[in-house]
Write a structure and sequence with these properties.
mainly beta; nine-stranded antiparallel sheet; globular; two-stranded antiparallel ribbon
């Protein structure tokens, strides 16, 4: 990606008592000057009313929700991301598909815009600790940003974060889930 970046980072340290503590998270963002407002462009009759496809990579982090210290589990999965922006004659929709099957986790499809998004999961994790007892809903935040050379043209790349918040897992524990992606 040229104007944006995304990924996963982890910070861990050992304290005196001795416990391992730390923080794992995902990130996504880019240069404000290169942002493209795709929703505004969807209203522009000069822009073709055809879907735009972006393909790239995704990271998912799963963290135990209520534990700290050496029992606090941080797990990251690497997968692929595909996002389709459909202008729909001024009523745009986005469809994000992430595939974590090769890492041993779920695939996710999210469709919609703004606060009106649907979420579906498919596949089966290889580790029972990461199987959902109940599939999560979008509980906190979805940020999708588009970037390109010209502010009044279709974006050449996209990054985003999907926070799923806490999800009840099949092993009886709650875990916090975040996904970041980048594509062009």
């Amino acid at each position: 990606l040229e104007y944006s970046d995304f990924g996963y980072w982890a910070f861990h340290h050992t304290t005196e008592n001795p416990t391992d503590s730390g923080f794992d998270s995902v990130f996504a963002g880019g240069y404000d000057i290169k942002k493209v407002d795709m929703n505004k462009l969807a209203q522009d009759s000069a822009i073709p009313n055809a879907p735009v496809q972006y393909n790239g990579k995704a990271y998912a982090t799963i963290t135990d929700a209520w534990t700290t210290g050496p029992d606090n589990s941080h797990t990251a999965f690497v997968g692929t991301a595909n996002l389709t922006f459909n202008p729909n004659s001024g009523a745009p929709t986005e469809t994000l598909t992430t595939n974590f099957a090769s890492s041993g986790w779920y695939n996710m499809t999210m469709t919609g815009t703004g606060d009106n998004r649907s979420l579906a999961f498919s596949g089966t994790p290889t580790n029972n600790a990461y199987k959902f007892a109940t599939a999560p809903a979008i509980s906190e935040n979805v940020t999708i940003e588009y970037f390109g050379d010209k502010p009044h043209a279709v974006a050449t790349e996209v990054v985003g974060i999907v926070n799923l918040g806490e999800a009840a897992m099949a092993d009886g524990n709650d875990r916090y889930i975040e996904i970041s992606f980048g594509a062009k």
